[in-house]
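::Encoded backbone::
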Amino acid sequence: MGAPGHKRGRSGVVIASALVPVVGAVAALFLLPAIVRSRAIAEAREAGFDVTIDRVGVGLDGVTLHDVTAKATRTPGISARASEVHVAGLSATKARVTGLTARLEGPRDDLEVGLAAILSDHRRRFAGTPAKPRQLSVQGARVTWEGPAGERLAAADVAVEIASHGAGVEEVHGSVGRLELATPKAEVGPWASTFERRGGASRVRLAFVPAVPDGPGALLIWPRSGATELSVTIPRSSFRDLGVEPAALGLPAGGAPDVQVSLRGALSDDARSELTFDATLWGLRPAGLARAIDVHLEGTAASEGGKPLELAKTNITVGPFVAGVTGTVTPHAGGFQLDAMFKTLPMPCEQLARSEAKNMGPLAATLQAIGESTGALRVTGAVNASGVVAYDTAAPEAATLSWMAKETCGVSIFGM
């Protein structure tokens, strides 16, 4: 039999040995958040971001980073803050970001280059595999961009779901609940948007009246290969309902014209591009005219190999006049540039007088009717006009119109 003291010593060793893993586990619980924070900051720095993390929570369901701020070091003007970033499990195949506010400042071209570089790096860094895709969920985000000339883009209620099956093999689904654009000269919106990317093809839809998701809108489709498909459908609507001020398009600010647009086609940098369009403005009030007029434009435009689109079979109707239109349409990042010439079909002065008599009131129409029925009064000659139009959606206020009218109108009384 051993001595009592020896037994007590051996029991102490056993108890101490049992407590070691417990103490280690307790120490790990205290140290793990600090380790996670340090590792997250280091990985973010390698990815090109300066990051701060207010606190870290570690649980059985994963790791949660609270009050995270990030600033891009390689591209100035990109910063973000998230109230919570949750990474599920030890494999980090699922992440969820809530309360995200992203801010972009600077020239658009510079930011596009910087964002493209960040996207390329992160595709490789965080890519999943077909067998084990990585998933990222962003809910309730807000993104703003402020340009050097006072431009501002604000996207609120942004939701994005991304599943990465490999670098460049991502499925993306998302929506923007409220989209607004402001420049020093005009404001546009609020609009809404949905977007997705699947199998190398992308699709974006703009809803000009968010309360009517299937109402006035535009659809852009970038297939895996081939031309970009474009579709714009706006049934007769007021500019106010569409979230656009007429002045933003270079139209007269007075009055409240309605608009209808139907545009279909495909655009390509190296193949054939073709557009078919039909648009009407009702109640337009140009400066210098005593009354409102309606304007209708329809035709096609096509080109080869990324050249400006040539207008073909294009006519414009302005009030009682019909004109053939030729020229070019050059798409660009801010919309398009139009350089065109028009020439009206000769209109008999008698037809013009009849049209104007109806607008002048009952007395003028009655006098004209008496003259026509008796043959005592007859309007002779014709009217035609031609001109040149230059218009750019990037600078609608700089639009120019130069025209020349020719008329040989006369009045014959009793055949003389």
User: Anything to note?
Assistant: Residues 12-31, 360-376 have pLDDT under 50 and may be disordered. The chain has four helices and 23 strands. The first helix runs from residue 4 to 46.
